[in-house]
Specification:
Helix content: under 10%
Number of helices: 2
Strand order of the largest sheet: 1-2-3-4-5
Strand content: 35-45%
Largest sheet: 5 strands, antiparallel
Structural class: mainly beta
Number of strands: 15
Distance between the termini: 25 Å
Shape: globular
Number of domains: 1
Radius of gyration: 18 Å
Length: 200
């Protein structure tokens, strides 16, 4: 399954088993997912009681680094007003069986040792099932997980720093600093050796 995520937090599931449905989380301060048919018909709204998470000062600085404009070939850093709270939903994926995996703003914070991200799981009808924690050798603040076909998960290292570098962010700007190294690790889920699943 392939899911493409835009910065506006629209997520499009392109898989024949779910008919190309569109999953959209457009209200950043609410835990709310709209599910549409390809013709734009609203199928359902998935909601969950949720307390938004306040950003730390470090997070605000990192977000501000990514607010960059290129004008006449010159990098310009505009004044940025960063929201106090992180978006309630920071990512979501739909697996082959129609299960919706939602990463909330708390999902990558203060996780136990060895746990990268905790997801909320909803069944194909939009009913909340449980939380699942994924254990792998990744950093939720720097790296990203991508759900692929056949139960595979790709761990992409250094995504955030590379994204900053694409826009001339401060990561790696100091003289002598090495550019961030990108690496992709492919896991098969579940795998007792590489990636663990904990149910809550």
């Amino acid at each position: 399954m392939f899911v493409f995520a835009f910065t506006t937090l629209f997520f499009v599931a392109l898989h024949e088993t779910i008919g190309g449905k569109v999953y959209a989380a457009v209200e950043r301060d609410r835990y709310k997912v709209h599910v549409y048919d390809p013709d734009g018909t609203l199928i359902r709204v998935i909601e969950k009681d949720y307390e938004p998470r306040k950003r730390t000062a470090e997070e605000k600085d990192r977000v501000a680094e990514g607010v960059v404009m290129i004008i006449n070939g010159e990098r310009v850093m505009p004044d940025a007003q960063i929201e106090e709270n992180a978006p309630c939903i920071s990512g979501m994926w739909v697996t082959d069986d129609g299960t919706l995996w939602v990463r909330s703003s708390h999902g990558g914070q203060d996780q136990p040792d060895g746990i990268m991200i905790t997801y909320d799981l909803f069944d194909a009808s939009g009913h909340y099932q449980k939380q699942v924690s994924l254990a792998c050798d990744g950093d939720a603040k720097e790296d990203a997980l991508y759900f692929l076909a056949d139960g595979k998960i790709a761990l992409a290292r250094g995504v955030f720093s590379s994204w900053l570098g694409m826009f001339g962010g401060s990561q790696g700007e100091d003289e002598g600093d090495e550019p961030p190294e990108m690496e992709v690790i492919l896991y098969q889920m579940p795998s007792q050796r590489n990636i663990g699943i904990q149910f809550h």
